[in-house]
Predict the structure.
Amino acid sequence: MQIIHAITKEKPFISLEFFPPKERTEWPTFFQTVDRLAGIHPLFASVTYGAGGSTHGNSLEIVTRLKRDHGMESMAHLTCIGSECSEVERFLGDLTSAGVTNVLALRGDLPQGSTATTATATAPPFRYASDLVSFIRAGHPEMGIGVAGYPETHPEAVSPDADLQALRTKLDQGADFIVTQLFFDNALYREFVRRARALGIQKPIIPGILPVVNLKVINRIISLCGAAIPPAYMAELQEADRSGGAAAVQQVGVAYARRQAAELLACGAPGVHLYTLNRADAVLGIVDGLLQK
Ligand SMILES: Cc1cc2nc3c(=O)[nH]c(=O)nc-3n(C[C@H](O)[C@H](O)[C@H](O)COP(=O)(O)OP(=O)(O)OC[C@H]3O[C@@H](n4cnc5c(N)ncnc54)[C@H](O)[C@@H]3O)c2cc1C
């Protein structure tokens, strides 16, 4: 089923994002995590592509198994920068054969050391995610399409307005909904939605929430994606680390993410997309009782 049809029927909802473990030996533990999280009945579960060194084959296999063996509607992330049409087409064909009918259409990060100009010059025909959206729309009408949105503006964008216009282009090309980059201040989401609606974007905007489970991991993630941590929250995490170590950090991180999620749902977000980090405990801590009326 295309996820957009489920989004419009079932509100509020939880969705989950997994990344494929690098080593095959980690897969049994990974699928145990999936099984534990199947119990919260996510509206869908997405699987990252190429991120963190994972291979495309692993992404394909995991997104297929989530749907076939674990009862989750699944969505494959797909990046296009540096790809040939034939490569993208093969991946889409494999998804269709496996019964996976949803894609998060992404440009992907530029290769290190390149700029938008040099990378795109060497990577026709996909310059931006919008090119991928129109490619999928033209050849795969069976696919539901999500795209990425940036409450704090994409780091390479020339301006917040230009970035929002780029988002609108992706929707005009046929994308169905938006999943946001992670953020830690709900005011950023509310303002992003307000600006998007003012620009005529009416599609669902699903906020992405990340539980902080470890200071080292979060510092690496925010240095990559550019999200800001409110100073008071960072101070709380650091204090937890000093007094109680990793377990205390996770406790603070989960409580914060839970408050964030509850407030977002209360202010009208259609659901929340949880960046699981493949950690069942953290996710279960966030969602416990979250959707109860
Ligand atoms: C929810 C989510 C999931 C993600 N999953 C993955 C993943 O699985 N694997 C992975 O490698 N990465 C992933 N990423 C990261 C993503 O690939 C990067 O943020 C990437 O740098 C941009 O991808 P995009 O699809 O947003 O690109 P685009 O929408 O193409 O935007 C990229 C930049 O180009 C600008 N732009 C867009 N169109 C135009 C235009 N026509 N003219 C001028 N400028 C333009 C935008 O403002 C932006 O600055 C994810 C990000 C999010 C938010």
